[in-house]
Amino acid sequence: MKEFNEDRNCDCYDEEQFPMPRIGDKAPEFEANSTQGLVKFPEQYKGKWVIFFSHPADFTPVCTSEFMTFAAMEKKFKQANCELLGLSVDGLYSHIAWLRTIKEKIEYKGMKDMEVKFPLIDDISMNVAKRFGMIQPGESATSAVRAVFFIDPKGIIRAIIYYPLSLGRNFDEIYRALVGLQTADAFSVATPADWQPGDDVIVPPAGSCGTAKDRMAGKGADKCYDWFFCTRKIGKGEIEKKLFKKKK
Predict the structure, then answer these.
(1) In a shared domain, residues 208 and 101
(2) CB burial of residue 33 (10 Å; 0-12, 13-18, 19+)
(3) Catalytic site includes residue 63
(4) Does residue 176 lie in a domain region?
(5) Prior bond of 204 cis (ω within 30°)
(6) In the list 52, 85, 108, 162, which could disulfide-bond 149, CB 3.0-4.6 Å?
(7) How far, in Å, CA of 248 to CA of 204, rounded?
C-alpha cells in the first residue's frame, strides 16, 4: 500500500496542482508555441467556438488517420464558427515533420495531399496537457489521451469527450455535438437521443400546470408525448441560416 500511495503522489500525477477541468468551468488560459506560431488561448479565439483536442504521439497510425480527417473537415467546422486546436507532448520539429509526411506521402480513405492548417501545439513540458487533464497515468504517464474539449465563445467548457489511446474518434459525432450545443443555445431547446440537424428538438419542460395544459393543447410545441416531454420542429435550413457563417 505504501508503494501505491507514493506512486499516486508522484510529480507525474499532479491531481492537486491541476484539477480536472469540468463542464461549465472556464477553460484554462495558456500561451504555447505551435505549427502556426504562438497560440494565446483564449485571447485569440474570442467570439468563436473551439474544439481543443489532444493526441498521443506524432508518427502514429491512429493519430495520422484522425489528423487527416480533421484537416478534411476543417472548412466545415469553420462554417460553424469553430476553430480547431490540436496538442501532443511532442516537440515543434516533430510536429512539422509529421504533418509534412501526411501531406506528401499518406493517402487514406480517399484523402490525399492533406494539409493541416490549424495549430498543433508543442507541449514537451506537458504543462498545457496537465492543465486540461489530458495526461491520465492509468492510460499513460508520458502521452496524452484522445481528449476533445468543446469550448464556447465565452471560453466556457461545454462538453468533454475522452478516448483511450487505442480508439480513434468518431468525427461525425464531434461535429454533431458541436452543432447540437449551438442549436440548444440559439433556440433555447434541448436535443434528444441521436439528434441530427433537422430532427425534432425538445422544448423546455412546463413550469406550471397552466403551461403544461397549453403544451398538451399544442401551444408552444408541435407534439407532446406527455406533459413533461414535448417537441417541435426546427428545420435544418433554419439552423444553418441562424448558426453558420455565410461566405461573402
Answers:
(1) no
(2) middle
(3) yes
(4) no
(5) no
(6) 52
(7) 36
Matching residue, cell 454533431: 176
Cell (9 digits) for 177: 455535438
Angle at 191 (CA atoms; ends 21, 45), nearest 5 degrees:
45
Residue 178 lies in a domain: no
Sequence-distant (6+) residues with CB within 8 A of 73 are 171, 175
Q: What CATH number is given to the structural domain containing 235?
A: 3.30.1020.10
Catalytic hit among 10, 63, 209, 224? 63
β-bridge pairing 49-54 and 82-88 = parallel
160 phi, psi to nearest 5 deg = -140, 135
In a domain, 90, yes or no: yes
83-139: pLDDT as tens digits: 999 999 999 999 999 999 999 999 999 999 999 999 999 999 999 999 999 999 999
| Distance (Å, whole) CA 165 – CA 167 | 6
φ, ψ of residue 134 to 5 degrees: the values are -85, -15
The angle at the Cα of 62, spanning 197 to 30, to the nearest 5 degrees, equals 75
107 and 18, same structural domain?
yes
pLDDT digits (tens, 9 = 90+) for 29-76: 999 999 999 999 999 999 999 999 999 999 999 999 999 999 999 999
Q: Let me know whether 23 and 99 are in one domain.
A: yes
CATH for 144: 3.40.30.10
For residue 73, give the amino acid letter.
M
Select from 117, 116, 138, 160 the least CA-distant residue to 27.
Answer: 160
How many domains are contained in the chain? Answer: 2
